[in-house]
Amino acid sequence: MTLDELKKDDQTYVSGAYARFDLAIREGKNAVCWDYDGKRYVDFGSGIGVNSLGFADDKWIMAVAEQAKRFAHCSNLYYSEPCIRVAKTLCERTGMKKAFFQNSGAEANEAMIKAARKYSHDHYGDGRHEIVSLVNSFHGRTVTTLTATGQEGMHKDFAPFTGGFVYAKANDAADLGEKVSEKTCAILVELVQGEGGVVPLDLVFVDQVAKLCEKEDILLLIDEVQTGVGRTGSLYAFEQFGLSPDLVSTAKGLGGGLPIGAVLFGEKTKDVFGPGDHGSTFGGNAAVCAGAAAVLERMDEAFLKDVRRKGERIREKLMGLSNVETVSGLGMMLGVSLKKGTGKEAAVRCLERGLIVLTAKERIRLLPPLTIGDAELEEGLSILCSVIESF
């Protein structure tokens, strides 16, 4: 098919919830892909951080295919070796105690919210159910996770919302202290606010949050949907902040291209869910978990060190440009603020020149495959730098 034919069918048959860029990908390999006209692109987007091993990774394909030959799905009524293997790996690598699997980041955050409220109800009874999240945060697009999202612009048109959420200013311990009350059961944070502009939290602020949670038996919830699975240069970003969270959500890069979400439970919360308290028909899908196991197998210290190296290379290259105001983020999760021009304008110009980038607020957002080679990295940076300096 041609791009025009695809666009026509898309407009006819697919809900118009997305403002698409003018690209249809036909195939790809690692950090490079081709459209239906054979044009080549370097990928600095990873399907919004999902393709942690890039396009069509050979070992990932083999793992998924081999499992699919045996069985793809059996439901959570039965034991599944791939599901159990991924849960064990995640717990052993992070120090968390148990895992619960779903199909997306929003679902993982929903489960995390339920777990926090049930823990509080089990220990303190009714009325202690509020969750404090941060202004400028993003936690999903279901009604509840949209309510948890601290961006007023995303709250229009969908009322009434789920109750029990309040918002504190990021990096403002005094404001957070005012928002915490006897009704508070948990504090929910992204250590790098991704959709909010790729904005890391201050280490001092995060330490204050952790101490407050420990003192008041308030659960510390870390949304690692975008920051997790090597993206920030450690398996999970909370490791770089010295935290021992009570609940962690993970998704995106964990599946390597297939849909998966998970909640990781700490010591306090490991037994909060009993039979019937939560569920997911597709959660723990065997083929998906086989892919996740292949992703995690690659995430050794040498791999993560290389992620940090490539992230520093991107930062160094961009900070040398006259039109760059700031470069924020951790590892290979970076946001670029321009003195002239917007992220959306830059993304369109990059695509025309054969580079895929993302946006976050007014910034350019960069989430290259963690496996990107140095040659493709430099090729993409060359395009990006020329676009940034073209404004």
The percentage helix is 25-40%
Poorly predicted residue ranges: none
> In one word, what is the shape?
globular
* β-strand number: 17
- Give the structural class: alpha/beta
Strand order of the largest sheet: 4-12-11-10-7-5-6
- The SSE string, one letter per element, is HEEEHHHEHEHEHEEEHEEEHHEEHEEEH
* Spatial extent as radius of gyration: 21 Å
Instruction: Please describe the biggest sheet, giving its number of strands, its sense, and whether it closes into a barrel.
Output: 7 strands, mixed
Distance between the termini: 35 Å
The fraction of residues in strands falls at 15-25%
User: How many H/I helical runs?
Assistant: 12
Topology:
Elements: H1 3-13, E1 25-29, E2 32-35, E3 40-43, H2 46-49, H3 58-70, H4 81-94, E4 98-102, H5 105-124, E5 130-134, H6 143-148, E6 165-168, H7 173-179, E7 184-189, E8 192-193, E9 199-200, H8 203-216, E10 219-224, E11 247-250, E12 261-265, H9 286-298, H10 301-319, E13 324-330, E14 333-338, H11 343-352, E15 355-356, E16 358-360, E17 363-366, H12 374-388
Parallel strand pairs: 3-15, 5-6, 5-7, 7-10, 10-11
Antiparallel strand pairs: 1-2, 2-3, 4-12, 8-9, 11-12, 13-14, 14-17, 16-17
Please provide a brief summary of the model.
This protein is an alpha/beta fold and 391 residues long.
Labels describing this entry:
7-stranded mixed β-sheet, alpha/beta, 12 helices, 17 strands, single chain
